[in-house]
Amino acid sequence: MHSACPASVSPSAAAPLQVVLKRAHDYDTIHAGVEAKITEYASRGYRALGFGLAEGAGAPDAPGTNWQFLGLLPLFDPPRHDTAETIQRCHAQGIGVKMVTGDQQLIGAETARQLGMGANIHKIEVLLQAKAAGSGLVGGHASVGELVEAADGFAEVFPEHKYEIVQMLQDRNHMVGMTGDGVNDAPALKKADVGIAVHGATEAARGAADIVLTEPGLSVIVEAVIGARMIFQRMTTYAKYTVAMTFRICFTFGILTIAYNWYFPTILIVLLAVFNDGAMIALSKDRVTPSPIPNSWRLRNIFLVGIVYGLYLTLSTWVLYHVAAKMTFFEDGLHMFSLNDTDRVLLPFCRNLLGSLGVSNPSAPASSLTAQLGQQYAGVSESALEQCLVEQRYVRGAQLRTLIYCQVSISGQALVFVVRTARHSLTTLAGGLTYVAFFGAQVASTLIAALGFGGYAPPPASVSPCSLCSTSLGSHPTFWPSGQVPIAGTEGRFTASVIGCTYYVLVAWIWSMIWYLALDPIKWLLIWALNEDGVRSRHSWKRMIRMRARHPTKTGEEVHITLGAAAANHLNPMGRASMQRPTAEMLSRASVISVEVGANGVRRVSGTMARRGSLEVASALSGLRNQSLVATNPFGRRSVTRPAGAAGVGPRGAAGGGELGSAAYKRSSLPTTLPSRKP
Predict the structure, then answer these.
(1) What confidence tens digit (pLDDT) does each residue in 43-96 have?
(2) What is the distance between the alpha carbons of residues 652 and 15, in angstroms, rounded to a whole number?
(3) Cα within 13 Å of Cα(469), Cβ side
(4) How far apart are CA 188 and CA 58, in angstroms?
(5) What whole-number distance in Å separates Cα of residue 411 and Cα of residue 125?
(6) Nearest-CA neighbor of 492 among 382, 410, 404?
(7) CA 413 to CA 278: how far, in whole Å?
(8) Are 387 and 468 in contact (CB under 8 A)?
(9) pTM given for the model
């Protein structure tokens, strides 16, 4: 602009509009109207550029230079086409979005209205005055922090204010993320918990940020939030499942060992751990639903949930053990072979069994009854009745171990489907690998439980084959060909061997499914009691109501931002569509910008006119300001070709033009019409 300017006519060197206006020789006369006009533009989301012309010899600031204020040019810089949707998605994820802008308050409020952000936009002076005042009510709020927390944004801010806003939100225990692209955003980006440098940001902003976007737009931030919450959900599922299984294993076998002197073999514990590892690995690819509110690690809740699940599953296993080993439900009600190991059941059973073998005196040493029991009992010094009790407890205990193993494996790994979602586990589809891991592990566990390990590990002092080890149904235990049993009175009777429980695996499956049905109600009670995801938080409820009020589809408010995106570059990193051709919707309500035509065609202020004297140039240009207003052109806009002596253009300002029209220069790079809304 400077190179095209003659010595007698100088531009304003791109000074702010207020500077251009205040230099005008008739400032006292026109400033009220100009400020009113720009206020009107700002209320409709337009920025205003001011045009000034310096008359006289020498530099624009030289003594004697006379400044003419020529007019205003409204500019519409719309958000990206996907910004409104991005903000709505942030609200849906429980993320509050605040606008911090250097624009006027009215421009910020109008932009926020278009984006569905809420209209509670404050000037930064409100914040500064509140800080200066100290304690007391601040705009109806108890403190400055509450004012910042409740605001939807701040306008007319400077770089240092952005830093203070971020710090105040952090002092209110908020995790703060901030986007920026300029050098002046670097301190706030560094201060924020998550600083995000947008596409095309300066090196300073990139260096201060935690995340650098490589593509235009902000929608990727929401995708990153959703992805992070899905990862967090998988980690939480893993933590809850691991804690629950750890407590369950410790409680279950600790109680059975201490209370009943009943031992569980190490090999089955190892198999439980191996199969559970498969389920935990599959969780990394599980299909999860991200939390509707921001997540945080609540270790106390994780341990409490794990303990409750562990105790419940321990109870299910203990009840199964008690019913199978201390009651006669399965043999009396379902006519299955007995696993009861109490003297009340075993003493009459052994007497009947010995009687069926021809033993008339069960108290006689087994070594004296080799004719009835077999030569393998020649070394048994204990009575035949005692030897029978030892063999029955050994066999029934070995079969009971596989039953308990199968039930612990099924019920434990099924817990994954409960902790992975807050909804009902049977109505929520898990990931394919999760199902493969579960059913693969349980098929293997069921086969191990049904077939056993053939009596592994065998007792050190033993008798084989056994004569007093038949089941309550009179048959020899299946899948146990060796028939090796411990000798009464030796340490072998405490050996934790494993014999297949055959069809008792069906009992394990049915038992696990029955107890599984109560896990979801327990989960919902825990979610309510611990207020997970803010289900009973009054603050979260109010926030949801506010989100619904702001959502255009919920309120019926029509918010259409249909402008296309421009190609992003280093001068336009956000890909804004300000210079794109207006849409049909915008053109349908645009004011007409007529082009004044004189005898020689389009009015033109040429260099020849400028050389005739600056006063004649000013007179020619000032004629554009006194046009009558008509219905199709309420602002009296005119478009002319750019004069050789280009006028100065000031960026956005804070005042408007009253009865003054806006002067716009016709350039090949600008459209011949500018969109504007109806008043």
Answers:
(1) 887 888 888 888 876 566 677 778 888 888 888 878 888 888 888 888 888 888
(2) 10
(3) 27
(4) 43
(5) 62
(6) 382
(7) 10
(8) yes
(9) 0.68
